[in-house]
Amino acid sequence: MPIQRDDVLAWVKAVAGTISENSSYLTQLDAAIGDADHGANMERGFKAVITKMPEISDKDIGTIFKTVGMTLISTVGGAGGPLYGTLFLQAGLKTAGKMELTLQDWTDALEAALSGVIMRGKAQLGDKTMVDALTPAVDALKQSLQENQPINQALKRSADAAQKGMEATIPLVARKGRASYLGERSAGHQDPGATSSHMLLKAAADTWKDNS
């Protein structure tokens, strides 16, 4: 069963809730290697997104994603705004006019989102950024497509891959962003951007678990 527009709206709300619940945790992670504002910035951005929900609840999925992206760019401080804004804007371009998403559609959207984040942040796999969570997540979705897995199984696989990618940032030395200023001292800390990216994908797996 494809992911419907109402499922997408429910996911955006779930992401906002997860970010809000984990705001202090994300800020704590960011305090170790960044500006100690990732949680607060992301929470502010998604609170702004929630206020936009009534005006986009009858729109197509691409419009929903683009509105989320524009809202994050205008409300989230630091690097998070442009990066997460780009993620949603690129996903919106891939899903323009769609009222439902197949697994192929979601995979294409997330792959476009990842490409946008890489272009915007100039980060690659292993740089200790959100790319380290998103890349294995996209790879897992592609593998699931090849194996004709149901959407819900593919989403869980993708979220699990993102979690492993997130955890793999702990020993890495940061090569991008504020954390890179710390050099070797950035090792031993989990990247906050990879953590919030995992939260997005886990929220998708949890929200859409009945889409078989």
Describe the 3D structure.
With 212 residues, this protein is an all-alpha fold. The protein has a single domain (3-207), classed as Alpha Horseshoe (Serine Threonine Protein Phosphatase 5, Tetratricopeptide repeat). It has nine helices and two strands, in the order βαααααβαααα. The chain has helices spanning 5-21, 23-33, 38-56, 61-75, 80-94, 103-121, 131-146, 151-167, 192-207, and strands at 3-4, 100-101.
Distinctive features:
212 residues, mainly alpha, Serine Threonine Protein Phosphatase 5, Tetratricopeptide repeat, two-stranded antiparallel sheet, 9 helices, 2 strands, 68% helix
DSSP, total strands: 2
- Our count of domains comes out at 1
Q: Give helix and strand order, one letter per element, not per position.
A: EHHHHHEHHHH
* Share in helix: 55-70%
CATH architecture: Alpha Horseshoe
Describe the main β-sheet briefly.
2 strands, antiparallel
**What structural class do helix, strand and pairing data support?**
mainly alpha
Q: Extract low-pLDDT stretches.
A: none
C-alpha Rg (nearest Å): 16 Å
Distance between the termini: 6 Å
Summarize this structure briefly.
The chain is globular and about 45 Å long. The protein has about 210 residues and is an all-alpha fold.
What's the layout of helices and strands?
Elements: E1 3-4, H1 5-21, H2 23-33, H3 38-56, H4 61-75, H5 80-94, E2 100-101, H6 103-121, H7 131-146, H8 151-167, H9 192-207
Helix pairs in contact: 1-3, 1-9, 2-3, 2-9, 3-4, 4-5, 5-6, 6-7, 7-8, 7-9, 8-9
